[in-house]
Design a protein that fits this description.
two-stranded antiparallel sheet; mainly alpha; Arc Repressor Mutant, subunit A; single chain
Length: about 130
């Protein structure tokens, strides 16, 4: 398998990876990832996200602000409303690549003892 020789793959020094670590941390929260995945389908207002995700307005607003501060989401004001969208089309590629990796690894990531979800681990324990 051929690997790219640019960007993350070209620089093994850990300090060069800080921006990438920040990117993945910004998407590591389940609420922020759900918002990003929803915005991948098209722009939405906070009220739309509240209804679709079933979360409190303050929670959605805080996470949208975080994504906006990270440069991953932009807001388009229209009257008293703001329509949010992904700031970069490359984020769609990243989310699609993540889905591909998850499909290829099956439950391995979810079952990871360090980063797996408690729900997945509890489900496996109940089945044994």
């Amino acid at each position: 398998m051929a690997m790219k020789s640019e960007g993350l793959l070209a620089a093994p020094a850990t300090e060069d990876m800080h921006p990438a670590v920040a990117l993945f941390r910004s998407l590591a929260d389940p609420t922020r990832l759900a918002i990003a995945r929803r915005l991948a389908a098209g722009e939405a207002r906070v009220v739309d996200l509240i209804g679709e995700l079933g979360l409190a307005q303050s929670t959605v607003s805080a996470h949208v602000a975080c994504l906006r501060d990270c440069g991953l989401v932009t807001g388009r004001p229209e009257g008293r409303q703001v329509f949010y969208a992904l700031a970069r089309p490359e984020l769609l590629d990243l989310l699609a690549a993540a889905e591909t990796v998850l499909a290829a690894t099956g439950n391995a990531v979810a079952l990871c003892p360090n980063y797996g979800t408690d729900t997945e681990r509890a489900d496996v324990g109940a089945k044994q």
